[in-house]
Specification:
Blueprint: H1 2-15, H2 20-34, H3 41-52, H4 58-69, H5 72-86, H6 92-108, H7 111-128, H8 133-143, H9 154-163, H10 167-173, H11 175-196, H12 206-231, H13 237-255, H14 274-301, H15 309-331, H16 339-365, H17 368-400, H18 403-413, H19 418-433, H20 438-455, H21 460-474, H22 482-491, H23 495-518, H24 521-531
Subunit structure: The complex comprises the extracytoplasmic solute receptor protein and the two transmembrane proteins.
Subcellular location: Cell inner membrane
GO cellular component, one term: plasma membrane
Length: about 525
C-alpha cells in the first residue's frame, strides 16, 4: 500500500507539470510527513549526503570537460578523421558521422552534447552530397545516444553512486557494448546505402588518414588520459574528471585555439621561412612524443621500482629527439639549411607562440567565451545535481519503508527468475524512459531493481549496462526523448518528422538491447579481465 501511495504521488506531480526533481523531492517529503514513521530530519540528512557523495563530484568536472570539448573545432576535426577512416565505403559519410559520434561520446559523456556538436556539422555535410535531411537526422539522433554508453559516461557515474558499485568497472563494461552499438548502426547504414546506392567519398590514401588523426589527436588523447589514468592506478574516476576538465580547457584555449583571445592565431604564419616551419614542426612532434610518452609510461610503470621516473624521462627524451631529427631530415631534404639550422630557425616561432600563451593566459581563462562556457556547464551541473539529490531522497524513502525488499519478496513468490526479471526491467525502463530524464529515472529505478537482481544472481555491472542501454533508447522515443528535441532544434524539422526519421535505426538499438540483456559477457568480460568481478556487500 505504501508503495502505491508513494509512486502515485510522484506520477500525479509529474502529470500536473512539475519538474522531475521537484516531483521526487516533494512526494518524498509529503510521504514522510503523513504516511511514514521516519523523521523529517532524514530529509536534511539525505540531501546533505548527496552533496557529500564523492562519486558524484565527478559529474561537474565531466560536464565542464564536455563543454570545452563541444567547440566546433574539436567536432570538425573528429568528423574529418572519421571521414578519412570510413568515408570511402558506400554511405561512408553517414558511417563517418556515427564514428565521429562514438569518438565525441568518449570525450563528452553526454548524448545531447554529442548530437549538438557532431550533428550541427555532419547533417549539413550529408545534405551537401545528396543524403536526405530525414536520413541524416535519423542517424545523428540515434548515434548521439552513444554519448551515455561509451565511457566516460555521466549516467554510469549516477548508477554507480545510486548502487555503490565501481565507476571504473562501469566504464570498462561500456567499452565493448559501445563499440558494438556503433558497429551495428554503421552496418545498418552500409546495407541501406547499398540498397539506395548512396554516395561514397573518394579514398585519399593513408596520408590523409594520418593527417586527420594528427589534427584530432589532442582531443582524442583525452580518452587515453581518462581511461589510462584510471586503470593505470594514477587516479580515481573522480580525479580523472578533474584532470579531464583541466586538459580540455588547456587544449581548447591554447592548443586548438578555438575560443578565447588566441582564437584565429595560427602556430605558424605564411611569412615564416620554410626552414623555420620545418624546424618548428619537427620540434613540436618531438616535444609532443616526449609528453605522450611521459604520460603513458607513468600510467604503465608508476609502481615499478626498476623503471624509475628518471629512466622514463631519458627514454622519452631520446624518442623525442629521434622523432624531431627524422621529421626535419625528411621534410627539409630539399632545403639548403641543415638539421641544426632548421631547428635554430624554428626557435623564434617557439618564442612567438610561448609569448602569446603567456600574455593571453589570464585573458583566456577569464574571457567572455570561457565564462560563457563555464556558465553553461554550471547550469547543466546544477540541473543534474538537483534531480539526483531529490532522487536520492526518494531512494532513501523507498529504503526506509522497505519497499524494494517487499517487491523482491513478491517477485520471487510469483516465480520470477533472472530471465523474466530482465524482461520486466526492460519494459519498465523503456516506458519510463519515454517520460523522464535518464539520470532521474535511473536513480529512482536502480534502488528498487538492484536488490531483486542481486537475489536472482544478476551481475550488478551487467544490470547497469542494461539500464544505460534502456536510457539510450528512451532518449530517442517520444514524447520526451531529449535527443529528438535537440535534433529537431538543430535541423529545424518538426518533432514528428524527426521521430519518423529515427525509428528505423531505433529498431537496430532494440536488437542491440536484446543482445546486451541476454549475453552478459558483452558487459562483464572486460571488467572481469582487468579488475575482477564486482563484490556486493
Amino acid at each position: 500500500m505504501e508503495a502505491l501511495i508513494l509512486f502515485g504521488m510522484v506520477l500525479t506531480l509529474l502529470f500536473i507539470g512539475l519538474p522531475v526533481g521537484i516531483s521526487l523531492g516533494l512526494s518524498s517529503i509529503l510521504f514522510i510527513t503523513f504516511f511514514s514513521h521516519d523523521s523529517l530530519s532524514s530529509v536534511a540528512i539525505s540531501l546533505f549526503g548527496a552533496g557529500q557523495h564523492y562519486t558524484l563530484l565527478a559529474i561537474p568536472f565531466f560536464v565542464l570537460a564536455s563543454s570545452f570539448m563541444s567547440t566546433g573545432g574539436v567536432a570538425k576535426r573528429l568528423i574529418n578523421f572519421a571521414i578519412a577512416s570510413v568515408g570511402h565505403f558506400r554511405g561512408g559519410l553517414a558511417m563517418a558521422s556515427v564514428l565521429a559520434c562514438m569518438m565525441f561520446a568518449a570525450l563528452s559523456g553526454s548524448s545531447p552534447a554529442t548530437v549538438v556538436a557532431i550533428g550541427t556539422i555532419a547533417i549539413a555535410g550529408m545534405r551537401q552530397v545528396g543524403y536526405s535531411k530525414e536520413f541524416a537526422s535519423g542517424i545523428i539522433a540515434n548515434a548521439g545516444t552513444l554519448g551515455i554508453l561509451i565511457p566516460p559516461s555521466i549516467v554510469m557515474v549516477v548508477y554507480a553512486a545510486a548502487t555503490d558499485v565501481s565507476v571504473g568497472r562501469m566504464f570498462l563494461a561500456g567499452v565493448i557494448p559501445g563499440l558494438m552499438a556503433g558497429g551495428m548502426l554503421m552496418l545498418a547504414i552500409y546495407v541501406v546505402a547499398r540498397i539506395k546506392n548512396l554516395p561514397a567519398e573518394e579514398w585519399k590514401g593513408f596520408g590523409h588518414l594520418v593527417r586527420g588523426g594528427k589534427e584530432a589527436g589532442w582531443g582524442l588523447f583525452l580518452i587515453v588520459i581518462i581511461m589510462g589514468g584510471i586503470y593505470g592506478g594514477a587516479f580515481t574516476p573522480t580525479e580523472a574528471a578533474v584532470v579531464a576538465a583541466v586538459y580540455s580547457i588547456f587544449i581548447a584555449l591554447f592548443v586548438y585555439r578555438d575560443m578565447g583571445p588566441l582564437k584565429g592565431q595560427t602556430w605558424t604564419n605564411d611569412s615564416d621561412a620554410p626552414a623555420a616551419r620545418v624546424g618548428f614542426n619537427g620540434t613540436v612532434y618531438g616535444v609532443s612524443l616526449f609528453l605522450v610518452w611521459e604520460i603513458m609510461s607513468f600510467f604503465a610503470f608508476a609502481n615499478s621500482d626498476s623503471f624509475t621516473g628518471g629512466a622514463r624521462a631519458l627514454v622519452g627524451l631520446a624518442l623525442g629527439i629521434v622523432t624531431a631529427l627524422f621529421y626535419i631530415s625528411k621534410r627539409g631534404q630539399h632545403l639548403d639549411t641543415g638539421l641544426v639550422g632548421c631547428m635554430a630557425a624554428g626557435i623564434p616561432i617557439w618564442g612567438r607562440n610561448l609569448s602569446l600563451m603567456v600574455r593571453g593566459f589570464f585573458p583566456a581563462l577569464f574571457g567572455d567565451e570561457t565564462r560563457k562556457t563555464m556558465l553553461e556547464g554550471t547550469k547543466t551541473t546544477v540541473m543534474l545535481m538537483f534531480i539526483i539529490a531529490n532522487a536520492l531522497l526518494f531512494a532513501h524513502t523507498l529504503s526506509a519503508e522497505r519497499i524494494p525488499q517487499a517487491i523482491t519478496e513478491w517477485m520471487l513468490g510469483v516465480g520470477f527468475n533472472w530471465f523474466t526479471f530482465l524482461i520486466a526491467v526492460n519494459i519498465l525502463l523503456l516506458i519510463g524512459g519515454q517520460f523522464m530524464e535518464p539520470s532521474g529515472l535511473l536513480v529512482i529505478v536502480a534502488p528498487v531493481v538492484f536488490p531483486i537482481a542481486m537475489e536472482l544472481g544478476v551481475d550488478p555491472i551487467h544490470l547497469g549496462i542494461i539500464m544505460v542501454v534502456n536510457m539510450e533508447i528512451g532518449m530517442i522515443t517520444p514524447p520526451i526523448g531529449l535527443n529528438l528535441f535537440v535534433t529537431s532544434g538543430i535541423t529545424g524539422m518538426s518533432l514528428a518528422r524527426v521521430v519518423k526519421a529515427a525509428m528505423p535505426f531505433v529498431a537496430v538499438l532494440f536488437v542491440f538491447l536484446i543482445l546486451v540483456t541476454y549475453i552478459p559477457a558483452l558487459s562483464t568480460a572486460l571488467p572481469y579481465a582487468i579488475m575482477g568481478p564486482e563484490i556486493v556487500q
